Input
Amino acid sequence: ASPQTRTATGAETGAAADTREQRGEYLTTSTGARLYDTDHSLKAGARGPTLLQDHHLREKITHFDHERIPERVVHARGAAVHGVFVGYGSATNVCKAAFLAEGVTTPVFTRFSTVVGSRGSADTVRDTRGFATKFYTSEGTFDLVGNNIPVFFIQDGIKFPDIIHAAKPHPDREIPQAQSAHDTFWDFVSSHTEATHHVMWQMSDRAVPRSYRMMEGFGVHTFRLVDAEGGTSLAKFHWKPKLGVHSLLWEEAQLIAGVDPDFHRRDLFDAIESGAYPQWELGIQVFPDTPEQTFDGIDLLDPTKIVPEELAPVQPVGMLTLNRNTTNYFAETEQVAFHVGHLPPGIDVTDDPLLHARLFSYIDTQLSRLGGPNFNQIPINRPHAPVNDMLRDGFHQHAVHSGVAPYKPNTLDGGCPFMAGVETGAYVEVPQVVAEGVKERSAPASFEDHFTQPRLFYRSLSPVEKEHLVRAFTFELGKCYEQAIRERQLRVLANVDAELCALVAAGLGLPAPEATEPAAEVAPSPALSQLGQVWPAD
Ligand code: HEM
Output
């Protein structure tokens, strides 16, 4: 090993973490001194005042006082479990990542979540669900941080604080806790019509999943894949559940939220406990890496657009099996830190402006959520690949770096042998022409079409799915205090589909407005009519 290699953490060697089984014959302080009594503080006589010298009392109370860390600013409520991913080898012609090779087994940790609610909110609310998977690959950690909806609300990450401020509870009353039924949310999405496609999915049955085990997952953004020869292609990631996609009825979701707010986490843990391990097939849609970065006229850098599977089939590349529950929720689920920039060789980012903001945001929030820059040394975040970094010191540093020269090149620690062979590493930038022109705050014209895909989505639904969608819009908009917001959202729906708008308007007792945007007419074709329908179980 290079002299720079860290020692003594056990992280990179896979040695056992610091487990405290809370068994044993005697209790100790955090420094190992045996205690004979933890029920009585040290007092001056049985009725006397408590003495400041009682170290055990002070340690016990002080530690308790600092038990809480901030919940995630979004996706605060979640449940996570361990599993394995096995590559099929079918992706090796387009992606050199070792974990995708045939038969390679990679340990994973998957966290499912709601987006808006606080850590103690109910599971079955109408919301997008997070679907984040950490692959501990032999070439470094790969985090696929996705959602159960294939598109996002906004096209540029600079609006992320705005949409989240709008979706979180109202600042004055902290209402509602975990639903989209409120004025600020509808105020935002009716004013930012790029959100329409995501809102359509969110008002559909997809936003009230029956179980985490029965949800699809999507990487949303387009990524760039690199093959062994350096050739590139563009790709979107999909998770397909073996149990199929199933939803709750809205009435069921509401009742369950009261009767069993832990419904989804209980379902996940109980299934694994009983040996019914949920499985998902990972698939990719692959597109040629052209200078335009479009496919069949669809801008691949626009995260509010899908590419219909009929135009680009999802090709299976491996299988995820979740098979082990957590031992300690805080240590694992609460402390896990995902990052869209954790990429292995063979997977790279594109210039999607939403993705670029995410590349900054996750590490930034984790610096404060997990108390400093060393959170990747927390056991659940430790890579299973060898680590040889020059990152030093900082709060909660557990690694003992043995090198004396944490810089490169150096002549004291035997140089930097690890820089050799860099061409096989990650973050090898693919030569690309960067956009010409002046610096500007703008978006491409291709980002301006906000209604064609929402219209495709609506027209692809079955009658009962349409009915649920109409009822969801009517229910949620009915909760708004401001009439003007309802009317503005109806004008948005008029641009999606006249029938949808008329039905929601009737439900709200309001007149249906006319469309203001010229509709790119989309005849429901047999191919596109598949959109939004359930994935059949095997
Ligand atoms: C957390 C997905 C967009 C900021 C998460 C989590 C998921 C997720 C699944 C939960 C991670 C976990 O379980 O620990 C997505 C998807 C997005 C998106 C699919 C769009 C396609 C964004 C954007 C930003 C952002 C644009 C900011 C610019 C955050 C932050 C967290 C988070 C700060 C909390 C992370 C933590 O505390 O560990 N996101 N997100 N996300 N996301 Fe996103």
Remarks:
- Confidence is low (pLDDT under 50) at residues 1-15, 525-538.
- The radius of gyration is 26 Å.
- The CA atoms of residues 68 and 340 lie 26 Å apart.
